[in-house]
Amino acid sequence: MVASCSGAIVTSLFVTPLDVVKIRLQAQKNPFPKGKCFVYCNGLMDHICVCENGNTKAWYKAPSHFNGTLDAFVKIVRQEGTKALWSGLPPTLVMAVPATVIYFTCYDQLCSALRVRMGDYSQEAPLLAGAVARVGSATVISPLELIRTQLQSQKQSYRELTDCIRSAVQSEGWLSLWRGLGPTLLRDVPFSAMYWYNYEKAKSWLCERSHTREPTLTITFVSGAMSGSIASIVTLPFDVVKTRRQLELGELQAKNLSCQVSSSTFSVMSRIVAQSGFSGLFAGFIPRLIKVAPACAIMISSYEFGKTFFRKHNEERTLRPLQDTNA
User: What is the mean pLDDT of residues 182-208?
Assistant: First the structure.
Protein backbone atom coordinates (compact mmCIF):
# COMPACT_ATOMS: atom_id res chain seq x y z
CA MET A 1 0.00 0.00 0.00
CA VAL A 2 2.86 2.40 0.80
CA ALA A 3 4.57 1.45 -2.48
CA SER A 4 1.42 2.21 -4.52
CA CYS A 5 0.83 5.46 -2.60
CA SER A 6 4.37 6.72 -3.22
CA GLY A 7 4.17 5.58 -6.85
CA ALA A 8 0.92 7.51 -7.30
CA ILE A 9 2.46 10.72 -5.94
CA VAL A 10 5.61 10.38 -8.09
CA THR A 11 3.45 9.76 -11.20
CA SER A 12 1.22 12.76 -10.57
CA LEU A 13 4.24 15.04 -10.03
CA PHE A 14 5.73 14.01 -13.39
CA VAL A 15 2.56 13.90 -15.52
CA THR A 16 0.46 16.81 -14.19
CA PRO A 17 2.60 19.60 -15.78
CA LEU A 18 1.90 18.10 -19.24
CA ASP A 19 -1.85 18.32 -18.65
CA VAL A 20 -1.69 21.79 -17.12
CA VAL A 21 0.13 23.07 -20.23
CA LYS A 22 -2.42 21.31 -22.48
CA ILE A 23 -5.35 22.94 -20.64
CA ARG A 24 -3.72 26.38 -20.76
CA LEU A 25 -3.18 26.02 -24.51
CA GLN A 26 -6.84 24.97 -24.92
CA ALA A 27 -8.04 27.94 -22.86
CA GLN A 28 -5.94 30.31 -24.96
CA LYS A 29 -7.43 28.97 -28.20
CA ASN A 30 -11.04 28.69 -26.96
CA PRO A 31 -11.60 30.62 -23.69
CA PHE A 32 -13.65 28.70 -21.14
CA PRO A 33 -17.00 30.40 -20.36
CA LYS A 34 -18.75 30.06 -16.99
CA GLY A 35 -20.17 26.56 -16.52
CA LYS A 36 -17.89 25.07 -19.19
CA CYS A 37 -16.20 21.81 -18.21
CA PHE A 38 -12.80 20.46 -19.10
CA VAL A 39 -10.94 17.24 -18.32
CA TYR A 40 -7.99 17.44 -15.92
CA CYS A 41 -5.66 14.43 -15.69
CA ASN A 42 -3.01 14.03 -13.01
CA GLY A 43 -1.63 10.83 -14.52
CA LEU A 44 -3.74 8.67 -12.21
CA MET A 45 -7.35 9.63 -12.96
CA ASP A 46 -9.39 11.90 -15.22
CA HIS A 47 -11.28 14.59 -13.32
CA ILE A 48 -14.00 16.91 -14.59
CA CYS A 49 -13.35 20.54 -13.64
CA VAL A 50 -16.02 23.22 -13.98
CA CYS A 51 -15.20 26.84 -14.84
CA GLU A 52 -16.55 28.61 -11.79
CA ASN A 53 -16.95 32.16 -13.11
CA GLY A 54 -15.53 34.67 -15.55
CA ASN A 55 -12.68 35.45 -13.16
CA THR A 56 -9.32 35.52 -14.94
CA LYS A 57 -7.53 34.76 -11.66
CA ALA A 58 -8.40 31.06 -12.04
CA TRP A 59 -5.23 29.10 -12.89
CA TYR A 60 -6.67 27.77 -16.15
CA LYS A 61 -7.50 31.33 -17.29
CA ALA A 62 -4.29 33.13 -16.42
CA PRO A 63 -3.60 35.77 -19.12
CA SER A 64 -0.78 34.70 -21.41
CA HIS A 65 0.20 34.06 -25.02
CA PHE A 66 1.95 30.81 -25.83
CA ASN A 67 3.48 29.78 -29.16
CA GLY A 68 3.49 26.06 -28.40
CA THR A 69 4.05 23.46 -25.70
CA LEU A 70 7.71 24.23 -24.93
CA ASP A 71 7.04 27.98 -24.99
CA ALA A 72 4.15 27.45 -22.56
CA PHE A 73 6.40 25.55 -20.13
CA VAL A 74 9.03 28.29 -20.18
CA LYS A 75 6.58 31.20 -19.84
CA ILE A 76 4.50 29.60 -17.07
CA VAL A 77 7.65 28.96 -14.99
CA ARG A 78 9.11 32.40 -15.72
CA GLN A 79 5.92 34.44 -15.16
CA GLU A 80 4.02 32.42 -12.55
CA GLY A 81 6.66 30.30 -10.83
CA THR A 82 7.41 26.58 -10.92
CA LYS A 83 4.44 25.73 -8.66
CA ALA A 84 2.04 26.83 -11.41
CA LEU A 85 2.88 23.64 -13.34
CA TRP A 86 1.06 21.68 -10.62
CA SER A 87 -1.98 23.96 -10.43
CA GLY A 88 -5.18 22.19 -9.45
CA LEU A 89 -3.35 19.05 -8.31
CA PRO A 90 -4.01 18.86 -4.51
CA PRO A 91 -7.86 18.53 -4.66
CA THR A 92 -7.66 15.72 -7.22
CA LEU A 93 -5.02 13.77 -5.26
CA VAL A 94 -7.51 13.38 -2.39
CA MET A 95 -9.33 10.82 -4.54
CA ALA A 96 -6.71 9.71 -7.06
CA VAL A 97 -4.21 8.42 -4.46
CA PRO A 98 -6.73 6.29 -2.48
CA ALA A 99 -8.16 4.94 -5.77
CA THR A 100 -4.66 3.95 -6.92
CA VAL A 101 -3.82 2.33 -3.57
CA ILE A 102 -7.06 0.28 -3.65
CA TYR A 103 -6.47 -0.70 -7.28
CA PHE A 104 -2.83 -1.82 -7.04
CA THR A 105 -3.19 -3.53 -3.65
CA CYS A 106 -6.30 -5.43 -4.77
CA TYR A 107 -4.60 -6.46 -8.01
CA ASP A 108 -1.55 -7.91 -6.26
CA GLN A 109 -3.60 -9.81 -3.67
CA LEU A 110 -6.07 -11.13 -6.25
CA CYS A 111 -3.37 -12.13 -8.73
CA SER A 112 -1.46 -14.09 -6.09
CA ALA A 113 -4.62 -15.88 -4.95
CA LEU A 114 -5.80 -16.63 -8.51
CA ARG A 115 -2.42 -18.00 -9.62
CA VAL A 116 -2.64 -20.62 -6.86
CA ARG A 117 -6.25 -21.57 -7.69
CA MET A 118 -6.16 -21.46 -11.51
CA GLY A 119 -3.57 -24.20 -11.95
CA ASP A 120 -2.77 -24.67 -15.65
CA TYR A 121 -4.46 -21.36 -16.47
CA SER A 122 -2.43 -19.33 -13.98
CA GLN A 123 -0.92 -17.21 -16.78
CA GLU A 124 -4.38 -15.67 -17.33
CA ALA A 125 -4.62 -14.61 -13.66
CA PRO A 126 -3.41 -11.01 -14.37
CA LEU A 127 -6.22 -10.60 -16.93
CA LEU A 128 -8.95 -11.44 -14.40
CA ALA A 129 -7.28 -9.79 -11.40
CA GLY A 130 -6.76 -6.53 -13.32
CA ALA A 131 -10.40 -6.39 -14.42
CA VAL A 132 -11.81 -7.14 -10.94
CA ALA A 133 -9.45 -4.71 -9.19
CA ARG A 134 -10.47 -1.90 -11.56
CA VAL A 135 -14.19 -2.57 -11.02
CA GLY A 136 -13.63 -2.36 -7.25
CA SER A 137 -11.63 0.88 -7.22
CA ALA A 138 -13.88 2.63 -9.77
CA THR A 139 -17.03 1.66 -7.86
CA VAL A 140 -15.64 3.02 -4.58
CA ILE A 141 -14.43 6.32 -6.06
CA SER A 142 -17.28 7.11 -8.52
CA PRO A 143 -19.70 8.66 -5.94
CA LEU A 144 -16.87 10.76 -4.45
CA GLU A 145 -15.94 12.16 -7.88
CA LEU A 146 -19.62 13.04 -8.51
CA ILE A 147 -19.75 14.84 -5.15
CA ARG A 148 -16.46 16.69 -5.85
CA THR A 149 -17.79 17.99 -9.19
CA GLN A 150 -21.01 19.15 -7.54
CA LEU A 151 -19.13 20.91 -4.74
CA GLN A 152 -16.94 22.73 -7.24
CA SER A 153 -19.69 23.70 -9.68
CA GLN A 154 -22.35 24.85 -7.24
CA LYS A 155 -20.24 26.08 -4.29
CA GLN A 156 -22.50 24.25 -1.87
CA SER A 157 -21.84 23.83 1.83
CA TYR A 158 -21.53 20.26 3.08
CA ARG A 159 -25.00 20.52 4.66
CA GLU A 160 -26.52 21.67 1.35
CA LEU A 161 -24.64 18.91 -0.44
CA THR A 162 -26.01 16.30 1.99
CA ASP A 163 -29.55 17.54 1.36
CA CYS A 164 -28.94 17.44 -2.40
CA ILE A 165 -27.62 13.87 -2.25
CA ARG A 166 -30.51 12.76 -0.04
CA SER A 167 -32.98 14.32 -2.47
CA ALA A 168 -31.31 12.63 -5.46
CA VAL A 169 -31.36 9.25 -3.72
CA GLN A 170 -35.06 9.64 -2.81
CA SER A 171 -36.09 10.63 -6.35
CA GLU A 172 -33.72 8.47 -8.45
CA GLY A 173 -32.52 5.76 -6.04
CA TRP A 174 -29.07 4.87 -4.74
CA LEU A 175 -27.77 4.12 -8.23
CA SER A 176 -27.86 7.87 -8.98
CA LEU A 177 -24.62 8.13 -6.94
CA TRP A 178 -22.91 5.92 -9.54
CA ARG A 179 -24.15 7.90 -12.54
CA GLY A 180 -21.52 7.77 -15.28
CA LEU A 181 -19.91 4.61 -13.87
CA GLY A 182 -20.93 2.52 -16.92
CA PRO A 183 -18.81 4.39 -19.51
CA THR A 184 -15.92 4.51 -17.02
CA LEU A 185 -15.99 0.73 -16.59
CA LEU A 186 -16.33 0.16 -20.35
CA ARG A 187 -13.01 1.94 -20.81
CA ASP A 188 -11.12 1.12 -17.62
CA VAL A 189 -11.91 -2.58 -17.17
CA PRO A 190 -10.69 -3.71 -20.65
CA PHE A 191 -7.74 -1.30 -20.29
CA SER A 192 -6.80 -2.78 -16.92
CA ALA A 193 -7.19 -6.41 -18.04
CA MET A 194 -5.04 -5.88 -21.14
CA TYR A 195 -2.53 -3.71 -19.31
CA TRP A 196 -1.74 -6.21 -16.56
CA TYR A 197 -1.73 -9.25 -18.87
CA ASN A 198 0.65 -7.59 -21.33
CA TYR A 199 2.76 -6.11 -18.52
CA GLU A 200 3.35 -9.49 -16.85
CA LYS A 201 4.12 -11.09 -20.24
CA ALA A 202 6.52 -8.30 -21.27
CA LYS A 203 8.23 -8.33 -17.88
CA SER A 204 8.80 -12.11 -18.01
CA TRP A 205 10.08 -11.92 -21.60
CA LEU A 206 12.50 -9.07 -20.83
CA CYS A 207 13.77 -10.87 -17.71
CA GLU A 208 14.52 -13.96 -19.82
CA ARG A 209 16.31 -11.86 -22.43
CA SER A 210 18.36 -10.14 -19.70
CA HIS A 211 19.07 -13.44 -17.86
CA THR A 212 17.76 -12.11 -14.55
CA ARG A 213 15.15 -13.44 -12.15
CA GLU A 214 14.28 -10.09 -10.58
CA PRO A 215 13.03 -7.34 -12.93
CA THR A 216 15.17 -4.21 -12.97
CA LEU A 217 13.84 -0.64 -12.97
CA THR A 218 14.46 -0.44 -16.73
CA ILE A 219 12.53 -3.68 -17.38
CA THR A 220 9.48 -2.55 -15.39
CA PHE A 221 9.58 0.92 -16.99
CA VAL A 222 9.71 -0.45 -20.56
CA SER A 223 7.08 -3.13 -19.82
CA GLY A 224 4.75 -0.52 -18.32
CA ALA A 225 5.15 1.85 -21.28
CA MET A 226 4.56 -0.91 -23.85
CA SER A 227 1.51 -2.44 -22.16
CA GLY A 228 0.01 0.99 -21.39
CA SER A 229 0.39 2.03 -25.04
CA ILE A 230 -1.32 -1.11 -26.38
CA ALA A 231 -4.21 -0.88 -23.90
CA SER A 232 -4.73 2.86 -24.53
CA ILE A 233 -4.94 2.38 -28.32
CA VAL A 234 -7.46 -0.48 -28.08
CA THR A 235 -9.73 1.33 -25.59
CA LEU A 236 -9.51 4.79 -27.21
CA PRO A 237 -13.11 4.77 -28.60
CA PHE A 238 -14.45 4.15 -25.09
CA ASP A 239 -12.23 6.95 -23.77
CA VAL A 240 -13.71 9.39 -26.33
CA VAL A 241 -17.26 8.38 -25.30
CA LYS A 242 -16.47 8.52 -21.56
CA THR A 243 -14.98 12.00 -21.87
CA ARG A 244 -17.96 13.32 -23.83
CA ARG A 245 -20.48 11.92 -21.34
CA GLN A 246 -18.48 13.19 -18.38
CA LEU A 247 -18.44 16.70 -19.86
CA GLU A 248 -22.20 16.58 -20.55
CA LEU A 249 -22.89 15.49 -16.98
CA GLY A 250 -20.55 18.11 -15.47
CA GLU A 251 -22.15 20.95 -17.45
CA LEU A 252 -25.66 19.83 -16.42
CA GLN A 253 -24.54 19.91 -12.78
CA ALA A 254 -22.95 23.34 -13.22
CA LYS A 255 -26.24 24.72 -14.57
CA ASN A 256 -28.17 23.01 -11.75
CA LEU A 257 -30.23 21.04 -14.27
CA SER A 258 -31.36 17.46 -14.13
CA CYS A 259 -28.35 15.18 -14.33
CA GLN A 260 -30.13 12.50 -16.30
CA VAL A 261 -27.99 11.81 -19.37
CA SER A 262 -30.32 9.66 -21.45
CA SER A 263 -27.97 8.62 -24.24
CA SER A 264 -26.31 5.24 -23.89
CA THR A 265 -22.65 4.56 -24.63
CA PHE A 266 -23.40 3.07 -28.04
CA SER A 267 -25.80 5.88 -29.03
CA VAL A 268 -23.02 8.38 -28.21
CA MET A 269 -20.68 6.31 -30.40
CA SER A 270 -23.24 6.40 -33.23
CA ARG A 271 -23.57 10.17 -32.88
CA ILE A 272 -19.77 10.63 -33.03
CA VAL A 273 -19.51 8.43 -36.15
CA ALA A 274 -22.38 10.36 -37.79
CA GLN A 275 -20.72 13.73 -37.01
CA SER A 276 -17.03 12.96 -37.56
CA GLY A 277 -16.87 9.58 -39.25
CA PHE A 278 -15.26 6.43 -37.82
CA SER A 279 -12.03 8.36 -37.22
CA GLY A 280 -13.93 10.48 -34.64
CA LEU A 281 -13.80 7.50 -32.26
CA PHE A 282 -9.99 7.73 -32.34
CA ALA A 283 -9.79 11.50 -31.83
CA GLY A 284 -6.88 12.52 -29.61
CA PHE A 285 -4.90 9.36 -30.41
CA ILE A 286 -1.43 10.95 -30.13
CA PRO A 287 -2.15 13.10 -27.00
CA ARG A 288 -3.61 10.08 -25.18
CA LEU A 289 -0.62 7.91 -26.09
CA ILE A 290 1.82 10.62 -24.99
CA LYS A 291 -0.02 10.93 -21.67
CA VAL A 292 -0.75 7.26 -20.90
CA ALA A 293 2.55 5.59 -21.85
CA PRO A 294 4.81 7.62 -19.49
CA ALA A 295 2.18 7.61 -16.73
CA CYS A 296 1.96 3.80 -16.82
CA ALA A 297 5.73 3.45 -17.03
CA ILE A 298 6.44 5.79 -14.09
CA MET A 299 3.66 4.36 -11.93
CA ILE A 300 4.55 0.68 -12.35
CA SER A 301 8.33 1.17 -12.07
CA SER A 302 7.88 3.30 -8.90
CA TYR A 303 5.50 0.70 -7.50
CA GLU A 304 7.78 -2.26 -8.24
CA PHE A 305 10.78 -0.38 -6.85
CA GLY A 306 8.81 0.35 -3.65
CA LYS A 307 7.73 -3.27 -3.29
CA THR A 308 11.31 -4.51 -3.74
CA PHE A 309 12.60 -2.00 -1.20
CA PHE A 310 10.04 -2.92 1.46
CA ARG A 311 10.40 -6.67 0.81
CA LYS A 312 14.17 -6.45 1.41
CA HIS A 313 13.59 -4.29 4.48
CA ASN A 314 11.11 -6.81 5.90
CA GLU A 315 13.43 -9.75 5.17
CA GLU A 316 16.33 -8.00 6.94
CA ARG A 317 14.11 -7.21 9.92
CA THR A 318 13.01 -10.87 10.11
CA LEU A 319 16.53 -12.27 9.78
CA ARG A 320 18.16 -9.91 12.31
CA PRO A 321 16.67 -11.56 15.46
CA LEU A 322 17.67 -15.03 14.14
CA GLN A 323 21.25 -13.88 13.55
CA ASP A 324 21.37 -12.35 17.06
CA THR A 325 20.07 -15.62 18.55
CA ASN A 326 22.65 -17.72 16.69
CA ALA A 327 25.42 -15.36 17.77
Answer: 92
